[in-house]
């Protein structure tokens, strides 16, 4: 047990840190879920596509574009690339089952990962900062030692998550496009019979997911203070773990799963000092294992029945 | 030219097999005599990778279980050998069984979730294992075990050629020959495995899990065994790797190498044993020549100081091209090419086409009793399994054999392609296997 166990400032710091990271995992998990809901595929290149998007933001800001404008442009580009990849690369393989699609996303992983490293180099770059990230950019809550403060970055990341969830909810629940998307997610054949353009909904899911991923990567770079071609490698695993925890086909599940995972990964090493070093990946692995073995559909997912 | 038809198990077939094996052995023996030490090092690496890829073939290609953590299996073997040799002064050969056993255990543990999960969930869990392994290795937990952390673990293994060995090869060449012998043994065992009762059960499980279970295959046993054996091959591959490279580090065993193993598997042919050789060759020579080629083109050289990165792009492109156009891999393609000149017919098929007595072979009664349509062997080599769920990616029935296969040519339709036919006669067929 940590000696700081009864120190409220310490615990609150763990809490905000966990929530900030959790929000990032939730964004990646959302991207994974949005792809999975309609197509029943997991895009293992999601993280690499996101890195590419973050580097696009970086390249744009380096040419003097405003950070927020650059992010907006990168989001639109990501949407187009994601939708295009679904149509051009994934769709033709879909009839052939899960494995060819997994392989195709792995191939994308290889190409984008190496491509980013070739174009922007293997050493980390200073990422564009949408939120002020200096040492003084924080809100002090509790003074003393250790103090408790919330950085602007944390507030910004959490605010982005909340705004995004609200926007996604509006998009999926209140628009005709969202209705079509949900119809395809609920029952592909029935949606097709009702005249919903199923293929376009797949592309929509991939596009939104790619855009979300780009946003996530930009924020990951912001919180980490560095961006390199492997930035999203571990984050993808955390996103997958969060999606598993929340349920692969549940949008609110992805958000909750991400936040819970972030908290678990902050509090477990924070309170049990027996654990040395950064074993967050192992914790994520254990979370995935336990969830899949105890409740494979996750916290909010629907249980699938298989007919034989 | 009309294709020559050879009856499987006949003297002619054995002659073909024998000459193929002899040729392969001669090539392996000749390599260290005529090729520079640098090249021998490369071919040694091919052997190490091929063994690891073979493990992936067994679990993914034959059993149909997605495994995205093969780098971890490779890593556990490499690290076991590295730690035992460097810290404890073991001989390399003594570390291999330990590495193999640890791999077996890790594979078994990873295989347990596979009992309840399949498809994407299994992909997620194996992916997590594969990504977590290099992290664990570089953390205090790993360092306490002697992994050397992020910097990696250096190993010095050098052998002198023993005096009794007559051929004039270098020490490097001698190591290559030892590695080739180990790999030959492992490939021979794998060939036996996929033809055995277990191998048939593996393929049946891949093609239709429910049907296999109804036919008496116990999925739990077969899946865990497949994962364990796959990991064993991966671990031994890792041990062999240390004979070619004096260091193992977390980046060596990271997710990238898993991706390269997967690409190599698809390239050679997922549901083949000999495809692993082609995969290993690609894993060594593709990056080598890509780097060389990229270094010569000024435009590419100016973009990056790491021309090796272009190889990964090419791997990705190759993977996509193969998924789209050659989903079964190269070996089935070569087998089909071969059937234009030489068709190998299993005895039971010959029972329909040619009277066995006329061909001068004793056909085992249980094999002759199985009626197989003549068309089944006429399409030799492109014999796709009916209703393969993967739609042919791992679909075509295992075609064992190929230019470098240690057991020579083997006809696919003898293999457990169709569970309905293969399983009930599994015992009889395995007896037949022994009597051959």
TrEMBL record, chain A:
Provide an example Pfam family for this protein. BPD_transp_2
GO molecular-function terms, A-Z: transmembrane transporter activity
**Its GO CC terms?**
plasma membrane
Q: Any one Gene Ontology biological process term?
A: amino acid transport
Q: What highest taxon heads this organism's lineage? A: Bacteria
**Quick check: keyword Protein biosynthesis in the entry?**
no
* InterPro entries, per the entry: ABC_transp_permease, BCAA_transport_permease
**UniProt keyword terms in alphabetical order:** Amino-acid transport, Cell membrane, Membrane, Transmembrane, Transmembrane helix, Transport
The residues that cross the membrane are 12-36, 67-85, 97-120, 149-172, 201-221, 227-248, 255-275, 281-300
Topological type in the membrane: Multi-pass membrane protein
Annotated localization: Cell membrane
The record's comment on protein family reads:
Belongs to the binding-protein-dependent transport system permease family. LivHM subfamily.
- Supply the name of the protein: Branched-chain amino acid transport system permease protein
Instruction: Write down the species.
Output: Geodermatophilus sabuli
From TrEMBL, chain B:
Asked whether the keyword Transmembrane is assigned, the reply is yes
Which source organism does the UniProt entry give? Answer: Geodermatophilus sabuli
What this protein is called in its record is Branched-chain amino acid transport system permease protein
What Pfam families does the database record attribute to this sequence?
Answer: BPD_transp_2
First-listed, main subcellular location of the protein, grouped into a coarse class: membrane
- Which chain regions cross the lipid bilayer? 15-34, 40-59, 66-85, 91-112, 119-137, 174-194, 224-244, 256-289, 309-334
GO MF annotation, one:
branched-chain amino acid transmembrane transporter activity
Q: Where is this region: Disordered?
A: 374-436
Give the membrane topology.
Multi-pass membrane protein
Keywords from UniProt, A to Z, are: Cell membrane, Membrane, Transmembrane, Transmembrane helix
Q: Which domain of life is it from?
A: Bacteria
Q: Which Gene Ontology terms of cellular component type are present?
A: plasma membrane
User: Where is the protein localized?
Assistant: Cell membrane
């Amino acid at each position: 047990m940590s000696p700081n166990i009864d120190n409220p400032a310490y615990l609150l710091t763990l809490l905000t840190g966990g929530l900030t990271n959790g929000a990032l995992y939730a964004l990646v998990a959302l991207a994974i879920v949005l792809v999975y809901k309609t197509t029943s595929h997991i895009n293992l290149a999601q993280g690499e596509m996101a890195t590419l998007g973050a580097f696009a933001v970086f390249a744009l800001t380096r040419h003097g574009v405003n950070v927020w404008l650059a992010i907006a442009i990168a989001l639109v580009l990501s949407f187009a690339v994601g939708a295009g990849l679904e149509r051009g690369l994934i769709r033709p393989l879909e009839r052939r089952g899960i494995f060819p699609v997994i392989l195709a996303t792995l191939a994308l992983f290889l190409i984008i990962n190496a491509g980013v490293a070739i174009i922007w180099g293997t050493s980390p770059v200073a990422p564009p900062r949408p939120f002020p990230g200096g040492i003084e950019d924080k809100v002090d809550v509790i003074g003393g030692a250790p103090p408790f403060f919330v950085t602007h970055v944390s507030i910004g990341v959490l605010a982005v998550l909340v705004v995004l969830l609200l926007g996604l909810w509006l998009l999926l629940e209140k628009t005709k496009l969202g209705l079509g998307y949900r119809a395809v997610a609920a029952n592909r054949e029935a949606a097709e019979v009702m005249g919903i353009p199923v293929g376009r909904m797949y592309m929509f899911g991939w596009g939104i997911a790619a855009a979300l991923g780009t946003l996530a990567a930009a924020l990951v770079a912001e919180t980490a203070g560095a961006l390199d071609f492997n930035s999203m490698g571990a984050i993808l695993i955390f996103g997958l773990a969060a999606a598993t925890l929340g349920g692969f086909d549940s949008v609110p599940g992805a958000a909750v799963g991400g936040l819970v995972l972030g908290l678990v990964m902050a509090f477990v090493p924070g309170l049990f000092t027996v654990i040395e070093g950064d074993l967050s990946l192992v914790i994520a692995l254990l979370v995935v294992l336990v969830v899949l073995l105890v409740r494979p559909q996750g916290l909010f997912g629907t249980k699938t029945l298989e007919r034989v | 030219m009309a294709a020559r038809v050879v009856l499987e198990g006949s003297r002619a077939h054995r002659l073909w097999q024998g000459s193929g094996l002899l040729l392969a052995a001669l090539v392996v023996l000749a390599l260290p005599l005529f090729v520079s030490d640098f090249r021998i090092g490369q071919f040694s690496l091919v052997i190490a990778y091929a063994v690891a890829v073979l493990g992936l073939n067994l679990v993914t290609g034959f059993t149909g279980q997605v495994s995205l953590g093969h780098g971890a299996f490779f890593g556990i073997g490499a690290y076991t050998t590295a730690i035992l040799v460097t810290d404890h002064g073991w001989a390399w050969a003594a570390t291999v069984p330990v590495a193999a056993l640890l791999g077996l255990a890790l594979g078994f543990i990873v295989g347990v979730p596979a009992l309840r999960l399949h498809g994407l969930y299994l992909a997620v869990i194996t992916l997590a294992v594969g990504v977590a392994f290099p992290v664990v290795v570089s953390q205090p937990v790993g360092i306490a075990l002697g992994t050397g952390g992020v910097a990696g673990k250096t190993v010095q293994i050098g052998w002198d050629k023993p005096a009794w060995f007559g051929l004039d090869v270098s020490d490097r060449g001698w190591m290559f020959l030892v590695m080739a012998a180990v790999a030959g043994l492992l490939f021979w065992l794998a060939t036996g495995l996929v033809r055995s009762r277990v191998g048939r059960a593996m393929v049946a499980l891949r093609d239709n899990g429910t049907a296999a279970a109804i036919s008496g295959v116990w999925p739990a046993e077969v899946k865990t065994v497949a994962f364990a054996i796959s990991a064993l091959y991966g671990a031994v591959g890792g041990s062999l790797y240390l004979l070619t490279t004096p260091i193992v580090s977390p980046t060596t065993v990271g997710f990238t190498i898993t991706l390269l193993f997967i690409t190599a598997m698809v390239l050679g042919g997922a549901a083949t044993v000999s495809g692993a050789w082609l995969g290993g060759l690609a894993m060594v020579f593709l990056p080598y020549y890509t780097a060389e080629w990229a270094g010569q083109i000024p435009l590419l050289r100016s973009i990056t100081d790491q021309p090796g990165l272009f190889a990964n792009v090419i791997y990705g492109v190759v993977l996509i091209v193969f998924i789209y156009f050659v989903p079964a891999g190269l070996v089935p393609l070569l087998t089909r090419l071969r059937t234009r000149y030489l068709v190998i017919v299993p005895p039971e098929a010959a029972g329909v086409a040619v009277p066995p007595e006329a061909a001068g072979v004793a056909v085992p009664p249980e094999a002759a009793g199985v009626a197989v349509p003549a068309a089944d062997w006429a399409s030799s080599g492109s014999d796709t399994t009916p209703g393969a769920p993967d739609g042919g990616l791992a679909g075509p029935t295992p075609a064992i054999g190929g230019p470098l296969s240690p057991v020579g040519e083997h006809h696919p339709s003898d293999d457990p392609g169709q569970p309905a036919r293969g399983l009930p006669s599994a015992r009889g067929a395995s007896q037949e296997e022994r009597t051959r």
